[in-house]
Amino acid sequence: MPLLTIVPPMPGAERRFQPFVDFVHTCGWETEFVRLDWPSHRPPFGSTEIFRPIDTQTAGKVVLGFSLGALYAHLGALHARHLILGSISPFFLEDDDEPERWMVSYRSGNAATPADVLVGALEDEQMHRRATAVRDFYRHSRYVAVPAAEHELWHPNYLQAIKSALDRLGAERSQAAGTSPNPTI
What we know:
The protein is of the alpha/beta class. Helices cover 33% and strands 17% of the residues.
């Protein structure tokens, strides 16, 4: 089975993601989590040290992040095979309406990495602005405004958008390997 590497929004979030992990397994993918280490209970806005270990844990892999996890994946998973970025948090240098943010540009990612950029259609203007900018940053991207969804990974339409991306990536992987995406064929 192919492997999806998940960048959580905070250390210890794996338990909260168990229903999502179960969903990914029904899509025919295995999962693993990136290990995050923070010095406190809040995101380390003043430091970029969080991003370096993400790259070593995600090199060559299909990587998914949602919300803050999408921001970490975008800035940290610089050698990933593919990114799925859901509702990327607007805490970049350019987001001057956020008092706490990283003083790192969203342009600090790797524009050559293929990416699926997802945003809930009902999310606010700031979220759409950031998702659109990130979409335009990547040279090879797909953009989905998830119908009727807000900032909610568990929304059925959000799950369907992720499933569509995983199905497409699984088929591409199988085609490249000369095998069928369906093991019964």
